[in-house]
């Protein structure tokens, strides 16, 4: 590893029932442990940005989450609002159904529109593929489309599907994007050993809600 384990981790709270107190707890934990970012739902971005203003912890949020099936216009609008509120990292869900339908142009244009909005705000874009629904060949093609569309990362999962990050998928994603993009592993990572396995497979970022357990084992 080329940096402390905490700096690989997006400390995440995306459950729909998260209260303000719970979000604040995650923000304070991120300050304490020095995680790479806090990943929160869009409503909480402004709070997180205010609380993390004097730190090196980034504010990350999600767009088109968790289904990916909102319109491109909605995703771009959501992105622009999040950037205005202080987000500097955007994790968008690709349009999974259009990929599975073979409509690659729509997938590419959806990502490209969000990438342009994200980069206009000097932020970075991670594209969630939701590998649980994809074959290896579809994962590879989704990665290629993300590269073509100007994304900065590809990401394994939302954490809301039937399965999350798998080291084999991370390895395939890294082999496909090479050093052009980052790879984020997320969903079901609970231990230090699991996190290190993902990094060994090629992950440059880890999304986790069990972040403290991971760095204190």
Automatic annotation (TrEMBL):
Recorded GO CC terms: cytoplasm
Signal peptide limits: none
GO biological process annotation, one example: carbohydrate catabolic process
UniProt-listed Enzyme Commission number(s): 4.1.2.4
Keyword Cytoplasm: yes
Subcellular localization, as worded in the UniProt entry: Cytoplasm
UniProt-listed SUPFAM superfamilies: Aldolase
Keyword Lyase annotated: yes
A single MF term (Gene Ontology): deoxyribose-phosphate aldolase activity
Top-level taxon in the UniProt lineage: Bacteria
Protein name listed in UniProt: Deoxyribose-phosphate aldolase
Organism: Amylolactobacillus amylotrophicus DSM 20534
